Every structure is written in structure tokens, then in C-alpha cells.
Amino acid sequence: MYSEWRSLQLVVQSDQGHLSVLHSYPTSVGTEVANAVVKPLGTAVSPVATENILKTDKEVKWTMEVLCYGLTLPLEGDTVKLCVDVYTDWMMALVSPRDSMPQPVVKEPNMYVQTILRHLYNVFVPRPEQHSLNHIRLCQQVLTAVQKLARESVSMARETWEVLLLFLLRINDT
């Protein structure tokens, strides 16, 4: 598909930014960790949330490893949906930051959004149940958030634009 774009072919096909450290552990470990961590975050992204439970850069980065893994889980249950909710909320730090977002994400939104986009690729990876209505809704939710980010962000760095464009290329190559 990218034969005429030789310089991008390796970048698109060899990027491993969508993998979590939890992929090194047995599936049951990653699943338990993701389920336990994501549920409290789901309430933190609700419209009435006033404060986020994540305070430090270290906490946010560790949580993002878990969210990344959570996006690879089967679609039954609510873990994948909650991961998508959290990430699409945090992406909006480049559009309209809110107090309910983790402060490290608000302070360095470009860095975090780049990682979020790499992780959100996992939503588009084909699954056995890929034609489910739930999967389609999750993909639409991500694409709507990416569209809003591209249209409304006034502080998106060049590097973030590049990651966004690579994200779009990669999801079309799955």
C-alpha cells in the first residue's frame, strides 16, 4: 500500500508504540491489572468529576501503560470502553483542558497526546468480534475525538501532528 512512499513504509509498519509492558506478562495478569485500574478512572472522566486521582507524571505514565493494554482486551465487558473514554477525554487537553484531567497531561499535553494516539491504534486492530456494533462505536468515538483534536487544537506541536497523521495511516493499514 505504501510502496510509493518508501520512507514511510518502515515507520508505519514497524512502530511498536502501541504495546504495553503488560504484554510481557501472562494474559491473566494484564487483564486483572487493567480491570482493576480502569474502573476508578471511568468515574474520573464523568462530566461532574472535579478532581483526578492521578497527580504525578509517574502515576500518569504507569496508568497509560495499563490503558494501552486495556485497549487490547476482548470487547465484552466495559474495560475497553472505559479505556477509550479516558483517552478521548485526555486528548482534549490540547483543545480545552479541564480541572478533572491529570495535571501532568494538562501541563504537557503534546507529549501525552502523542502517546495516547499510539495506544489508540489498538482499538482498530482486527479482533475476532470485529464486526460487532460495540467495536464500530469505539472506532467512531476515537475518530470523532481525533477529528475534534485536529480541527480545534490551537497548541498542537508539529511532532503531535506527525504522530496524528501516522496514526491515521496505520489504522488504515490494519
TrEMBL record:
Ranges for domain Ral GTPase-activating protein subunit alpha/beta N-terminal: 134-174
GO MF assignments: GTPase activator activity
Domain of life: Eukaryota
Alphabetized PANTHER family for the sequence: RAL GTPASE-ACTIVATING PROTEIN SUBUNIT BETA
Protein name as catalogued: Ral GTPase activating protein, beta subunit (Non-catalytic)
Organism in which the protein naturally occurs: Nothobranchius kuhntae (Beira killifish)
Lineage of producing organism: Eukaryota, Metazoa, Chordata, Craniata, Vertebrata
Gene: RALGAPB
